[in-house]
Amino acid sequence: METIAYIALGSNLGDRLSYLRSAIEALNDHKEIAVTSSSSIYETDPVGYVNQGKFLNMVIEVATTLSPFALLDVTQEIEQKLGRKREVRWGPRTLDLDILLYNHENIETEQLTIPHPRMMERAFVLIPLLEVNAFVTIPTLSEPLTDIIDRLPDKKGVRLWKQKDGEDVFALFES
Ligand SMILES: Nc1ncnc2c1ncn2[C@@H]1O[C@H](COP(=O)(O)OP(=O)(O)OP(=O)(O)O)[C@@H](O)[C@H]1O
Ligand SMILES: Nc1nc2c(c(=O)[nH]1)N=C(CO)CN2
């Protein structure tokens, strides 16, 4: 059965825009994944480990026939292929792909937790997520997402960097 999933992308090393584009292309090239929508691109102050460069962050919606674990394998392969090294926890990275939501499933294993365990603390995730789907619902959450975002300290550090213009995800990457 086809699933709708939301994936957060982040990059703060090297050619950040090009890492985002390559990751979206690689996902869309997979025969069991179609990228169906995206947010704008935001430039965001680093959260957690603050002594690092600004991130570009965005969220995409995908339709997929992969299981959540197979989708995680694909996102991790793409991170590796695009040069990701894990050195400092929450530190600089060429590319980070986090699976936020997978239909309305709740998954809690050592390898994979969905909804993503830290998404509700991150305006750099919730602002683009709400842009992609203003009616998105999160399992076990009754409060409106907009109220949650209002309380998040990092929301002031989230700035629109490249506005989405129309429905074509790849148009975002044309200059
Ligand atoms: N929903 C999820 N999406 C992606 N990875 C997840 C998810 N839930 C659990 N993980 C696990 O988290 C591990 C660490 O991920 P990663 O190194 O990307 O963390 P990070 O980006 O440094 O921090 P954060 O998870 O806070 O964004 C991965 O190996 C993966 O198995
Ligand atoms: N602004 C911003 N800060 C972060 C980010 C990120 O993508 N954007 N990712 C992190 C680890 O996943 C830690 N901190």
Automatic annotation (TrEMBL):
Family matches, as PROSITE patterns: HPPK
Catalytically driven reaction(s): 6-hydroxymethyl-7,8-dihydropterin + ATP = (7,8-dihydropterin-6-yl)methyl diphosphate + AMP + H(+)
Glycoprotein is among the record's keywords: no
Gene Ontology BP term (one): tetrahydrofolate biosynthetic process
Segment forming the signal sequence: none
Keyword ATP-binding tagged: yes
EC number: 2.7.6.3
Keywords: ATP-binding, Folate biosynthesis, Kinase, Nucleotide-binding, Transferase
Broad class of enzyme this protein falls into: transferase
GO molecular-function term, one example from the UniProt record: ATP binding
InterPro entries cross-referenced by the UniProt entry: Hppk, Hppk_sf
CDD domains, per the entry: HPPK
Domain of life: Bacteria
Every 7,8-dihydro-6-hydroxymethylpterin-pyrophosphokinase domain range: 89-100
Name of the featured protein: 2-amino-4-hydroxy-6-hydroxymethyldihydropteridine diphosphokinase
Protein's organism: Geobacillus subterraneus
